[in-house]
Sequence to fold (495 residues):
Amino acid sequence: MIRLRGGAAVQDLLVERARRGDRDAFSALAARVVDGCYSLAYAVLRDADLARDAVQAALLGAWRDLPDLREVEKFDAWLHRLVVHACYAEARRERRWTAAVRAFPTEHPTLPDTAISVADRDELERAFRRLPPEQRAVVALRYYLDLPLSEVAATLGIPPGTARSRLHHATRQLRAAVEADARPAVTSEGRLP
Amino acid sequence: MNRQPFERDLRTFVSDVPEVAPRDLLESVLIELPTVSQRRRRFGVSRRFPKMSMPLRALATVAAVLVVALAAYTFLPKSSGVGSNPSPGPAASPTASPSPVASPEPTPTPRIAGAITVSDGATLDSGVRYVAPDFEPIFTFTGSPKLIYGLDGARHAFFGATTPSTDLGVVDAGSAFDESGKTIEVPSDVAAWIHARTDLDVLSTTPVELGTTSATLIEAKVHADAHTNAAGAINLFCPGAVDKCDFEEGGSIGYIPGNHLLVMVAPVAGKTVVAMATAPETSWTIVGGDAEAFLRSFQFPS
Fold:
């Protein structure tokens, strides 16, 4: 998660300096936010290589466009949007080059085990990857960054109703996938459970 | 599966992400940075163009030209010729100024002999002796590589290191925050108070001599399950009084769970001056030594 330190003073200072073209300040800023950006990109793309490329594009875009950022204190939300848009681009690029069904990742990220079952997790993973990136982004901002829907909408630059609708469709599909997986029969999409 | 467990599972699933970026990601960004030019700052009217119809866009263009022409006629000196000097206004150059040379100049009249009064936003030069312009009690310190200085009133100063990321701050403590985030009076024995906290793992406690001032340097790590504010950090000290400080707002630098931190407590002239530094565990081996040297360079002239 992209988090500010206790007071935002140091980050604001770095943003202000970077906005004026100070590469050292931007380097410091990038060092601060790169982990959070990567986590967010991974939450949307569920792929280490794509997330890496998305973050690289987002950070270079941030440097290029920083002079356009009017309110320094909104840097985090602004950067979230750049990361999400870079994720859209990566997802589109990937869709052009890979088959519809991708190899399932062999390693899970460094997460302590949770109550969620392996079967549910795998089904969620497959269903999540089938969602359009726009819906994945809403889910990631809502449930990973824990943003209220109004902030999700503001971050993505979409009306709140659209954010709500995307979240609704996404959760409905994900829930359906998990529930279908829980049933013993073959799923409606003809996949093996 | 009912709604609540599903949302919980979805939250767990979505949060199942790496918390640390690949090591070479930042490096690859910084390598490419010099090849990317910053945009000129755009003005509001140009942002609106894509949504405007062609006639409106043309009208806006004509209006903008007229406004600029009128402003130029009104404000430019009438004797201004083609070869006159450009205005030394604050507009940013579109080309980046990559070196610390761009830092604001130090104030010419120092507060204390032999030390440069550092300006807000200045990048410090390594090895140079500085004094903060307003901080009370007065102290001097030695610049550390790529530290940027920021002043926040007479009771708080902060420093941000460039790569790797480090936060440093100095505060004339007026209050403190307990483990639950409640604002309290500054404890009489700050070192013992820090030792007793269950959200910090104290790694070492070292007495240090800062000129004639005896201080205590404590190295610790923030527990992963520490109670944090909405920004995900714990705060320890605030320059303001108890009724003026808020855990959510923070009073100085904050500490993120898992991060390393140094706290140097110095009783000076009846005040509790606390100098702090923090960085992620992954970069502490690189920046920890510099941070400690920086804190140890503090001097409080009598």
Summary: Chain A touches chain B through 69 residues (CB under 8 Å). Chain A is about 70% helix and 0% strand.
